[in-house]
């Protein structure tokens, strides 16, 4: 498959990264085709992950969160790495988007690896993060918004905790 700028991708070549990982996690990362989910609405996931990979001289590809499904459909995903903030016997608390990645990975028989993440201070996004993008209104005045920043990923979707 060919992506932007004529870049050809091989089957099962992409490592999807999602969440705000602890800095020490990146020490074990080797060069690969890393695709980082943007992490809407606050973009914290992509900002922190891109910065950490840049320190290792790794240039990832940033994708819109909903692009992950397409990559699975095209059989391009090799593995999924998600950060978690809390763990118990039933699963983990991770950034919003972790559950859909777990469901897609299970459906496509792709491993999901969990890594320690930085804990969020807030579990809900401010309404402005959802109703505006780059300071520009994207919804009519009076529109309300609800945007959870975290969700639960059950252990049936997890291959391994790191």
Indicate the percent of residues in helices: 10-25%
Measured on Cα atoms, how large is the radius of gyration?
A: 16 Å
**Rough outline:** globular
The CATH homologous superfamily corresponds to Translation initiation factor eif-2b, domain 2
Our measurement of the CA-to-CA distance between the termini, rounded to an integer number of angstroms, reads 31 Å
Please name the CATH topology. Answer: Rossmann fold
What's the CATH first level?
A: Alpha Beta
Order of helices and strands: EEHEHEEHEHEEEE
By helix and strand content, what is the structural category? alpha/beta
Given as residue ranges, the uncertain stretches (5+ residues, pLDDT < 50) are: none
Structure annotation, total helices: 4
Write up what this structure looks like.
- By secondary structure, this protein is of the alpha/beta class.
- The chain has one domain (4-123, 151-161): Rossmann fold, CATH 3.40.50.10470.
- Helix content is 21%, strand content 28%.
- The protein is built from four helices and ten strands.
- It has helices at 44-55, 67-73, 98-107, 127-131, and strands at 14-18, 33-37, 61-63, 77-88, 91-95, 112-116, 132-133, 136-137, 150-154, 160-161.
- Strands 1, 2, 3, 4, 5, 6, 9 and 10 form an eight-stranded mixed β-sheet that branches. Strands 7-8 form a two-stranded antiparallel sheet.
- Strand 2, helix 1 (44-55) and strand 3 (61-63) form a beta-alpha-beta unit.
- It is globular, with a radius of gyration of 16 Å.
- The model has no long low-confidence stretch (mean pLDDT 91).
């Amino acid at each position: 498959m060919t992506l932007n700028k004529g870049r050809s991708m091989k089957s099962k070549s992409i490592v999807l990264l999602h969440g705000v990982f602890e800095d020490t996690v990146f020490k074990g990362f080797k060069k690969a085709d890393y695709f980082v989910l943007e992490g809407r609405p606050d973009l914290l996931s992509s900002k922190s992950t891109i910065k950490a990979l840049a320190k290792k001289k790794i240039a990832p590809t940033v994708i819109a969160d909903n692009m992950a499904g397409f990559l699975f459909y095209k059989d391009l995903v090799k593995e999924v790495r998600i950060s978690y903030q809390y763990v118990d016997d039933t699963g983990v608390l991770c950034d919003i988007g972790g559950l859909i990645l777990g469901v897609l990975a299970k459906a496509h028989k792709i491993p999901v690896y969990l890594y320690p993440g930085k804990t969020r201070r807030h579990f809900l996004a401010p309404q402005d993060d959802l109703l505006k993008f780059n300071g520009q209104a994207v919804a009519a005045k009076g529109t309300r918004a609800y945007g959870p920043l975290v969700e639960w990923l059950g252990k049936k979707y997890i291959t391994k905790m790191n």
